[in-house]
């Protein structure tokens, strides 16, 4: 019998480390080279949802985050973890001082966790500045998606800059 690992605000970094380690150890979900098979429907939906988060960030669309993250969802970045509502408040404040010129997501990996839950990993190139200061361009991202009422929702999202890549 398998056990599910659920990230909470307190254990999010540890859960993320475990999940990312699993992805690294498995090489790729299918055991084949990346892009060897076209993405399946679920993978396409999750990738589309993830692109939606970045587009919502660019267009300052807080409603997208509210409707695509679970109420108990958390966000983790180099500053630590925050609950969904705190993350939404930060975005409202940043909307006044941040400008996103563009972004790109690539190198997707998908790892099934339990029935109805997946870890999506990816690389990000973002071109943005807040308060006139450029944000790191190269990032690693990951999201845990759960199926709720027929819709994929992020319950955990993380974005961490690649070291020495500012």
Tell me the layout of helices and strands:
Blueprint: H1 12-26, H2 41-59, H3 62-68, E1 69-77, E2 80-83, H4 84-95, E3 98-114, E4 117-130, E5 133-134, E6 138-148, E7 151-161
Parallel strand pairs: 1-7
Antiparallel strand pairs: 1-2, 3-4, 4-5, 4-6, 6-7
Structure, explained:
Strand 1 and strand 2 form a beta hairpin. This protein is of the alpha+beta class and 166 residues long. The protein has one domain (12-32, 40-161): Nuclear Transport Factor 2, Chain: A. Mean pLDDT is 78; it is low at 1-35. The protein has helices at 12-26, 41-59, 62-68, 84-95, and strands at 69-77, 80-83, 98-114, 117-130, 133-134, 138-148, 151-161. Helix 2 (41-59) runs antiparallel to helix 3 (62-68). The chain has 4 helices and 7 strands. Strands 1, 2, 3, 4, 5, 6 and 7 form a 7-stranded mixed beta sheet that branches.
Strand content is 35-45%
Structural class: alpha+beta
CATH architecture: Roll
Mean pLDDT: 78
Top-tier CATH class:
Alpha Beta
Largest sheet: 7 strands, mixed
CATH topology: Nuclear Transport Factor 2, Chain: A
Question: How far apart are the first and last residues' alpha carbons, in Å?
Answer: 43 Å
Poorly predicted regions: 1-35
Radius of gyration, in Å, reads 15 Å
Query: Which percent bin holds the helix content?
Result: 25-40%
Q: How many strands appear in the DSSP assignment? A: 7
Total helical elements: 4
Please, how many domains? 1
- SSE run: HHHEEHEEEEE
Overall geometric form = globular
């Amino acid at each position: 019998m398998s056990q599910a690992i659920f990230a909470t605000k307190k254990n999010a970094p540890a859960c993320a480390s475990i999940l990312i380690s699993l992805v690294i150890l498995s090489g790729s979900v299918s055991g084949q080279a990346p892009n060897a098979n076209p993405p399946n429907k679920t993978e396409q939906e999750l990738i589309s949802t993830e692109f939606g988060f970045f587009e919502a960030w660019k267009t300052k669309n807080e409603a997208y985050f509210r409707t695509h993250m679970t109420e108990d969802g958390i966000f983790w970045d180099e500053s630590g973890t925050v609950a969904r509502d705190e993350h939404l408040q930060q975005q409202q404040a940043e909307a006044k001082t941040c400008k996103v010129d563009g972004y790109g997501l690539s190198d997707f990996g998908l790892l099934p966790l339990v029935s109805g839950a997946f870890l999506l990993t990816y690389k990000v190139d973002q071109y943005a500045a807040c308060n006139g200061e450029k944000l790191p361009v190269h990032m690693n991202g990951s999201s845990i998606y759960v199926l709720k009422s027929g819709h994929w929702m992020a319950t955990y999202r993380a974005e961490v800059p690649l070291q020495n890549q500012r």
